[in-house]
Amino acid sequence: MTERGRTSYGCPPTRIAWHWTILLAVPMVLLTAMTMTQGQPLPKELRLLIPLIVSFVFLNAMFILMLRSGRIDQFRSPVFILYALGLVMMFIPNMLEVRGTVAIGAEEIVQGKVPFCHMVIPMTIIPAAFTRTIIFPGSMLEGFASIGTMLVLWLVVSIVLGRGWCSWVCFYGGLDEGFSRILRTPLIRRISPTLRYVPFAVLLVIVLLSAVYLTPTYCEWLCPYKSVTEFAAVTDARTLIQTVIFVALFVGLVIILPILTGKRTQCGLFCPMGAFQSFTNKVNIFGIRIDKDKCIQCGACIKACPTLSLDQTCLEKGSPRMTCSKCGRCVDVCKFGAVSMQIKGTPPGHPNLGRVLFVYPAFLVMAIMGGSMIQQGLYRIILLVTTGSLVGGS
Ligand code: SF4
Ligand code: SF4
To answer: Is 394 within the bounds of a domain?
Structure first.
């Protein structure tokens, strides 16, 4: 085991020379500039301009350091965490401005105005295949976070990144990841590996219940992230119980257990979307490879993996379990350069090629989605500081 624990970064494979790094970074700089400004001139108002410039510089600095250093997780994680915090900072004031409340009312449900979130994808598309019914009160193509837009995004990302979705794209994942990184040495060091199968059981149950009752079961009863986005207004005993469950799951799985274990417990031990996404790893071309000739079986990567996707069997097999979310932490912590991101089936020997080919689309999607959230989150903070309120700035 490493003497300093899970966040001790080792000596990753090989750095990329500065001139190649800059050359490779140019398209990312241009693409992020285009998407973050949406092709418009820079805003003149300082409280809009500052978040734009700060998030643009931050994202591209992280990408350049990721390319140059050979490390993945060290420069992915800060973006991913701020992305999730930005979502929360943005979502709640937005809903207050649009609806006057974060609670979903009967009117929004009847009119199909509930934003569609990727967590609902498994319980939407699997029952839809059998029942030909989309069991979600959202719009198919119109408005904020429509069902069609999210399904297309999910499909494209799944083909390119597989379960990389859970460490690069999921707009909630940075929350349990952020809390999991608070303690340098976790207080609970042993978690039963069998718990990694719980999300598959949750997936099976919610898909069956959704198909039978034609309601988004997970969304209605089990989603911890309802606590920081939106939930049905508490009007009776049923909605009160639902709200208590959401808050309890959020506090337990997203805050307390990640702090105590250093693991992403919502993502790795509960989330049915994560379990569902694991199957896409089977058809995705990128994967973590462990070079058995270089590995000295120190166990640092096993200890570091936030989703319990590595064990002794994986070291012998040369690859993680299908639940790997491609966060890259094992690549970073291995001091012997034994772990790399590779295109499956290619011969070993070019660790930077697979890494660059993977991190480019992964970071691009994270930058496009996360950049906007970080930007808007910063804007809300500036608004709070300058006006004393999170809402009503423009
Ligand atoms: S791959 Fe082998 S040498 Fe590298 S961190 Fe894992 S166990 Fe240690
Ligand atoms: S196996 Fe490696 S890349 Fe996959 S989740 Fe674990 S630490 Fe991250």
So the answer is: no
| 95 vs 177, more confident | 177
Domain residues for the domain of 210 are: 105-284
236 plus 314 within the same structural domain:
no
The enclosing H or E element of 4 equals none
Read off the pLDDT of each residue in 49-73 and give the average, rounded to a whole number.
Answer: 96
Q: How far apart are alpha carbons 280 and 162 in whole angstroms?
A: 5
By most ligand atoms within 8 Å of CB, the mutation choice from 315, 330, 340 for ligand 2 is 330
Cα 84 to Cα 95: distance, rounded to the nearest angstrom:
17
Ligand 1 centroid from CA 75, angstroms: 21
Q: What is the pTM of this model?
A: 0.91
Closest ligand to the CA of 331? 2
Amino acid (1-letter code) at residue 367: A
Q: How many domains does the chain have?
A: 3
Does any domain span residue 327? yes
Nearest ligand, CA of residue 339? 1
Contact 268, 199 (CB under 8 A): yes
Distance 357 CA to ligand 2 centre (A): 17
Query: Would you say the CB of residue 315 lies under 6 angstroms from ligand 1?
Result: yes
Task: Say if residue 89 is in the same domain as residue 51.
Answer: yes
Report pLDDT digits (tens) over 96-153.
887 777 776 666 665 666 677 777 787 777 777 777 777 676 677 666 677 888 888 8
